[in-house]
Structures are given as structure tokens and as C-alpha cells.
Amino acid sequence: MAALRRLSLSSIPPLRRIVSRSFSSASNDDQTLLTIETSVPFTGHNIDPPSRSVETTPKELLTFFHDMSLMRRMEIAADSLYKAKLIRGFCHLYDGQEAVSIGMEAAITKRDAIITAYRDHCIFLGRGGTLLEAFAELMGRRAGCSKGKGGSMHFYRKETNFYGGHGIVGAQVPLGCGIAFGQKYCKDETVTFTMYGDGAANQGQLFEALNMSALWDLPVILVCENNHYGMGTAEWRAAKSPAYYKRGDYVPGLKVDGMDVLAVKQACKFAKEHVLKNGPMILEMDTYRYHGHSMSDPGSTYRTRDEISGVRQERDPIERVRKLILSHELSTASELKDIEKEVRKEVDDAIAQAKETPMPDPSELFTNVYVKGLGVEAFGADRKELKSVLP
């Protein structure tokens, strides 16, 4: 008989709240069935919300801890690489929001599609991308996921249906709805998660695309990652109604604690089942970014340091999973520290390898842009040095 244990994330650490422990297999403890209550209830709009009780296993929780720690370390390393001028251009970091990517991936398959904005490094990693591909792309190297030509804002992984980061605010939303149109047309029984931030939530193209999706009952889930600041502007200054899950009006919505990986998993599973039968839905992920909007934004001029540290102490998604693991005695604090050390080494090794990979050939500047045979010439910045001539 499957084991059941309950724990509310809102009252961590609660070792005394463990109800029972039994195993479906005496030799397979990592498949113990755990039932855990989400930190806060889901809030629904034109729909009955899912249950707060989420099923998981020790293996899944430990995987969550490893994967979110890896994402966190990658973004912290990207911060250092940017400051060392090894990453150029724009760079938008995801640390603090890891539970959205990890929880979403736990509820879907790689046949389902994801498209997002420019805060995309961790979404790419969640879709099966490698650290080498990520760091090489950030540093403009040939081994990058977009061959070093996209940079931070344009990660992409076709083989697992990740249709990229997009630099134009809100532009990915109609594209995501178009992907969902293709899924319905081909009867794939798959869905598209179209992600955007609270800063993009007032874009007209979002409402136009949602209207068409609702008319055609497309299997698309609009995911608003509400980290409460569009660039340096607080949500209440930009939106008359910051209840983004209600913005669809005629489309059902659900507000989710985006700092609770199990709540995200439950919501995304629920949403996928719903949209395959009924058409589009909005998920508002209540999350938070620890860095500024981009690396050019210190992130502390429009919010207080106390606010940031308060979220870290009370809602950090990695610490929540750490406390769950420890309170259920699935691992020791020392073992979790060892995982974090391994993660740091993984990231350091990937950076070292990325630094050794070559830059793209200058001729790659025009690949997939101009038709071959037009004799396009590429010059240096001063137009004195001819770099290459396309065949």
C-alpha cells in the first residue's frame, strides 16, 4: 500500500507533523508516495481550483533540489561572467523563479511546447539543455544552443519543443498561440505553455491572441510569471488590476504560489488536462526575482533590501524543498550540502569548457539571413578590413 505523509509548506520545519511512513516496496524507498499540502490555496477565476494535496516521491523532491540548485548556481555564475565582461549585451537572470520552470516540467512532457521571453536560461535547462550550451551561448561561442549568435535573450532547443527566448516584450504570446494552433490541427494531444511577465501583461497583442485562441479552443496555457516588477516599475503602478489570472475575463484563470514547486506542478498538470478539453487558460505564477530586471539594473533602487531578504528567508523555493527533505528524513543536511558542492563543480567545469570553445566564424553572421550566392561582404567596424565574403 502506498505511503502517505502530509506536510504544509506554510509551517516548515514541522518534523512532528509527519503522519505515517510505509513503503510500497521495502527495497525502493525513493518511490515512497508522499502527499504534501501546498503553501497556500489556489485561487480560481471561472473555474474550480485543483486540490492542495500534491503527490510526490523522495526521488522527485531530491531531483527538484538538485535541479533548482543547478539553475541558481548557473545564474549566479552568469552574474560574475557578465561583470567580468565575458558576457556582453543584455542578460536577464532567473534566480528566485526556479520553481516555475521545475514544477512545470514535472507536470508535462518534452512533446509539449514552451515559449518564453528573454529571462530564458533556466527554462532552456529545464527543457534538457546543457550547461555547456547555456554558457557557450551566453559568451557568444560556437557551442552555444543558438551557435553563439543569439546570446542571453535567444536560447532555443527545437528537439524538445522549446521555441526560445524573445526580446520584444509580449511578442512570444501570439507565437505560442500559433504553436498551439498547429498542435490542435495535427491532433497531437499536446499543449503549449506561453510565458510572459507582469510587465508584458498589458500588451494588446496578448489580448488579441487570447481572443483568437478562445474562439478556436486552442490548447494553450498563458503563464504570467508575476515577479511584481516590470523592469523597475512595481505592478501596482503599471496595472489598474494586477490580478493577472482574471485578465482573460471569458477565459478561466488560476493564481499559483510560484515559489512552491509542488504547487506549480499541480497547477500545470491541472491546466494541461483542462486546455486539451476546453481551450485556453491563464496561470498567474506569484514569484520573485532576486536580481534586477537585467544586469544593468542593480534591482535595489525601486525596492528595499529588506523586501528582497524577506522573500529569501520566507519563500525561497530551494529552501522550501530543503526543509521538506530534512523534515521527511529523506536526506541529511550534510548530504544536501554535498549536492550543492557537486552542482558548483558542474557549473565551474561547464564554464571552463565553454571558455575553450571557439567563437563563430565571421561568415556565420549572415547564415539564415541572406540567400547564398549574393556575394554579401562583411567588414570590420571601420569598414577597412574585409572579414569575409559569402559564397
Automatic annotation (TrEMBL):
<comment type="subunit">
    <text>Tetramer of 2 alpha and 2 beta subunits.</text>
</comment>
<dbReference type="GO" id="GO:0004739">
    <property type="term" value="F:pyruvate dehydrogenase (acetyl-transferring) activity"/>
</dbReference>
<dbReference type="GO" id="GO:0006086">
    <property type="term" value="P:pyruvate decarboxylation to acetyl-CoA"/>
</dbReference>
<dbReference type="InterPro" id="IPR050642">
    <property type="entry name" value="PDH_E1_Alpha_Subunit"/>
</dbReference>
<dbReference type="InterPro" id="IPR001017">
    <property type="entry name" value="DH_E1"/>
</dbReference>
<keyword id="KW-0560">Oxidoreductase</keyword>
<protein>
    <recommendedName>
        <fullName>Pyruvate dehydrogenase E1 component subunit alpha</fullName>
        <ecNumber>1.2.4.1</ecNumber>
    </recommendedName>
</protein>
<feature type="compositionally biased region" description="Basic and acidic residues">
    <location>
        <begin position="303"/>
        <end position="313"/>
    </location>
</feature>
<comment type="function">
    <text>The pyruvate dehydrogenase complex catalyzes the overall conversion of pyruvate to acetyl-CoA and CO(2). It contains multiple copies of three enzymatic components: pyruvate dehydrogenase (E1), dihydrolipoamide acetyltransferase (E2) and lipoamide dehydrogenase (E3).</text>
</comment>
<feature type="domain" description="Dehydrogenase E1 component">
    <location>
        <begin position="67"/>
        <end position="362"/>
    </location>
</feature>
<keyword id="KW-0670">Pyruvate</keyword>
<dbReference type="InterPro" id="IPR029061">
    <property type="entry name" value="THDP-binding"/>
</dbReference>
<feature type="region of interest" description="Disordered">
    <location>
        <begin position="294"/>
        <end position="313"/>
    </location>
</feature>
<dbReference type="InterPro" id="IPR017597">
    <property type="entry name" value="Pyrv_DH_E1_asu_subgrp-y"/>
</dbReference>
<keyword id="KW-0786">Thiamine pyrophosphate</keyword>
<dbReference type="Pfam" id="PF00676">
    <property type="entry name" value="E1_dh"/>
</dbReference>
